[in-house]
Each structure stands twice: as C-alpha cells, then as structure tokens.
Specification:
mainly alpha; Hypothetical protein af1432; Protein-Tyrosine Phosphatase, Chain A; five-stranded mixed β-sheet; 61% helix; elongated; binds fe (ii) ion
Length: 491
C-alpha cells in the first residue's frame, strides 16, 4: 500500500489544479464524516484522494488501463462515459496503490451514480464528492453535508432524488435510469424499515431532521396563536436581532403570518383584532385563489391585495400535471407521491420568488407599506408556507435575524401542516382539480429548508449588508429602514 506522501504526489501530477483542489476538499470532508461514523480515516482519506485519479484520462487511456489489468469496463460506463473514470479509478487504487478492502474501493467505483446497498465508505465518498464547496449551489450543498453528519441515508435519498429529477433533462440511457431507480427504491424501502414514523405522502415533517424538527417545535410553542379556523398561524416574534449595540428581539406583536382567512369566524376576527392590535391584512394570493376562498373581512382592519407571483398556482399544477402525472409511469408516480418530489417543485417556486423582477417589486411595496403601519400586520397566502414563508424570511433578514432562526421559523410550517393535512386537502378540493392532480399537489405540502436557504444565500452573497438588500432590491430609503426596524424590534 502506498504511503500518504506517495498518494498526494501521484494525485497532484495526475490532475489539473482545479480538480486537485476539488480532491483535497473532498478528502477533508470525507475524513470528517469517517471520524463521525467510526470508519478508518486513513483509508477514507486515500479513497477520497484517489477518487478522480482517472478523471482527466481520455477513453483510450482508460481502456488501456483496463486492458493492462484484464478488467472489463461495465455496460453502465459504456452507456455513460462520465462514469468510466470511477471504475478505472477503483482499478488503479487497487492495482497501483495496493488497496484491497472492497468497501473502500467500491467507494471510488460508485462515486458517480451510487447503487443500492452502499457501504458506509461508499456513501461518505459519494456525498463528499457531490457536496464539495466549489460545486454549484454551495448553500444547498453545505446544508446536505451538515445533514450527512447525522443521517447518511437521508442525505443519499436527497441526492438520488435529484438524479431522478435530472434524468429527464439529461436524457440518460435506460441502464442509467434503471440504476438510479433501483437505488432510490432501495433507499426508500430501507427508510421505511428503519424509521418508525415514516411519513405518509403529503406529510410535511418528513424532510426535517430531528434537530430541525425540535427547533421548529420551539418556534411553534412560542409563537402560535390560538385561532382554530386559520391554519398555520403564528407571530414572527422573539427572534434575536443583530442590530444595534444592545440586544434587540423581534416584538411579540407586530407581524403575523398565516394561511388564508376564509374560514375565520366572527369571534376569532374580533379576537385577532383586539388581542394582537391588528390593523392591516396583506393577501399574497392570486385573484383566482382569492375568488375561490375569499378572506373574511374584519371591520376596522385594512385589507390589501399583493399577489406575489401571478402564475404561482400555475407553476405547481403544470409541473405536476403536464410534465409528470399525466405521462408518468407507475414508478414515477411513486416518486411523485414520496416527499422527495417536493424538493424540485418547491425549489423552483422559491427561485422564482427570489429572482423574479415583479415578485421582488411586490416585496418592496409590502416592506414600504408596513414600515408606516400603526398596528400589527398579518400577511398570508393560501397555506402560509411558501409565499408567506419567503416574505417572512425576507422580513426577518432585514430585521437582522440569523439564517438559522429564519429557517427555524420557516420549518415551523411543517408542524402546523401535520395537523392540517386533511383540512388542506379539503381546501384544495375547492379548486376542482382532478384526483391525480390533488394527490400530486398534496405531495408538495412540505417545507424544504434547503430551498429557503438557497434563496437566502442568493441575497446574502449579493447584498452582504442587510441595508443594501433593503435599499437596492426593496427600494427602501434610510428613513423607511429605520422605521421598519424600530417598529418591529424591541428597544
Ligand atoms: Fe468523479
Ligand atoms: Fe470528484
């Protein structure tokens, strides 16, 4: 077996600077996970260092290596050449570097596509290679790397689910698709066996780790408002702000987020108005949604419509109906009904909210409107999770709250949702979708913390100072920002 120094030197010679840097980072992270999971750190480091050793060879060179050792390249790699360097890399690690342990060698061999029943070293290398910080979407990748520290299988499921999503776009061949499906089915089965509380389709807490779930529960305990006929209703109070010299927090009263107010009773309306000092309601829904389930108007409380994305309900329905449900195979339907299908749906919704000019314009109008409001402001969409969630995230960001708190607040919708899943289906039925579409829509009922984190990352990387975001994107002036902060933060 070659020494550490020999491996390091060999890899440095074989790879370009960029790929060498990638390799070093993959190896660092692989050692962190190996340590957590009680895996031989030296062997893990060596596999990570060698995983791309054949990456910059051309096909001919790779075939020559295979020939030299009497190895037959698999059909999978012939169909999908980007996988070939993994197979040849494993061969080189064995024959030229003297590694014998199959579980470790297979980590190299399967690092591109994964496979069912992976060993722990295989999962570690797969995850570290895919989450390496210079990959696209660093916020999402660091989220997934953090998740891997407590749950390798859950993290693997996310990645395999992403491959399922990409396979349509990239036109993968049948054998590749088959491999990805097999791995997904296997992991999902394992999850069912190992997790007692396996979430049903449409259950919303399924995508949270235990730590995230507990933190979200704390938010619910502190911020819930007891108004039975409004789903998912809570204040944004109690989060710590990083503004000013002394510690300030978001006021208990001031900002309320919720689902629609169509079922609000007269008593509850009065309670909301009196208890929280409500003076303004902002409805983020589209005109079509409002027509189906109009809010109960509260006397003496202003009501403003601010549709965030006109095509919003269109995005969801099209995505699930046209592209998938109608033409989906049984297997694809199974995926759609698993909570993992929500990740791409929810991500694409948030991406458009964080980037769409019109949406950002509407956010700006809302901020400028509420900074001058006297009393408490309630804002809502249909379920109070996505549009309301993104607005809440931006509000808390400009108020100086930490990303962690912002995500905890966002995740709290998962807990409200669990209690409301059935009600929500009733609500969706009002839209008169077909049964298939309804089931598909139900499967989007969940929080996807990595999606909100991705959106926040977009803001923080472009506007590291919160005022910069408030000024340049939301169009607020200094006085309005001051008003906004003073209105919603404690002294
Ligand atoms: Fe690779
Ligand atoms: Fe790699």
């Amino acid at each position: 077996m070659k020494s550490r120094e020999e491996i390091f030197a060999a890899v440095k010679v074989a790879l370009s600077k960029k790929r060498f840097d990638h390799t070093i980072m993959v190896a660092e992270n692989a050692v962190i996970l190996a340590d957590l999971y009680g895996i031989d750190k030296k062997a893990m480091w060596a596999m990570a260092m060698l995983h791309d050793i054949a990456k910059e060879m051309d096909s001919e060179e790779m075939f020559a290596v295979a020939d030299k050792y009497g190895y037959t390249i698999s059909k999978l790699s012939l169909d999908f050449v980007p996988n070939m360097h993994a197979e040849v890399g494993a061969l080189i690690a064995e024959k030229e570097f003297g590694f014998k342990d199959r579980d470790f060698l297979n980590a190299i061999k399967y690092h591109v596509l994964g496979r069912p029943a992976m060993s722990v070293p295989e999962k570690i290398l797969f995850i570290c290679d895919h989450t390496e910080p210079s990959r696209p979407n660093p916020a999402r990748m660091s989220y997934l790397f953090e998740m891997a520290k407590t749950d390798l299988d859950e993290t693997m499921l996310r990645f395999i689910s992403m491959l399922l999503e990409y396979q349509n776009k990239r036109g993968y061949s049948l054998s590749i698709r088959e491999r990805i499906w097999e791995t997904f089915d296997y992991l999902l089965d394992e999850r069912r066996k190992n997790k007692q509380n396996f979430p049903k389709a449409g259950s919303s807490a399924g995508l949270l780790t235990d730590v995230e779930f507990d933190a979200a529960l704390e938010v619910i305990r502190r911020n819930r408002i007891s108004v039975k006929s409004v789903q998912n209703i809570r204040t944004l109070g109690g989060f710590i702000s990083n503004y000013g010299k002394c510690r300030r927090t978001v006021k208990t009263k001031g900002l309320v987020r919720s689902a629609d107010l169509s079922r609000l009773t007269e008593e509850e309306a009065l309670y909301l108005k009196e208890e929280s000092g409500l003076t303004l309601i902002i409805d983020l829904r589209t005109p079509a949604e409002i027509a189906k389930a109009p809010d109960r108007k509260i006397p003496g409380v202003d009501y403003v419509k601010a549709p965030l994305i006109q095509a919003y309900s269109g995005i969801r329905a099209d995505y699930l109906t046209e592209r998938y449900i109608k033409s989906a195979s049984e297997r694809e339907k199974a995926w759609l009904l698993s909570e993992y299908a929500r990740i791409p749906v929810v991500r694409s919704m948030y991406q458009s909210m964080f980037t769409d000019k019109e949406a950002l314009n509407t956010f700006g109008q809302i901020f400028r409107l509420i900074q001058s409001e006297e009393g408490t402001v309630l804002f809502h969409c249909t379920s109070g999770k996505d549009r309301t969630g993104v607005l809440s995230a931006m509000l808390l960001y400009v108020l100086g709250c930490d990303e962690k708190d912002i995500i905890n607040d966002y995740n709290a919708s998962a807990i409200s949702f669990n209690a409301m899943s059935e009600n929500h289906m009733e609500l969706l039925k009002r839209y008169e979708y077909e049964e298939d579409v309804l089931i598909g829509l139900q499967s989007t009922l969940s929080v996807v913390p990595e999606a909100i984190r991705e959106g926040l990352d977009r803001i923080t990387s472009r506007y590291p100072a919160r005022e910069m975001f408030a000024m340049e994107v939301l169009g607020m002036n200094e006085e309005e920002i001051d008003n906004f902060q003073n209105k919603f933060l404690t002294e």
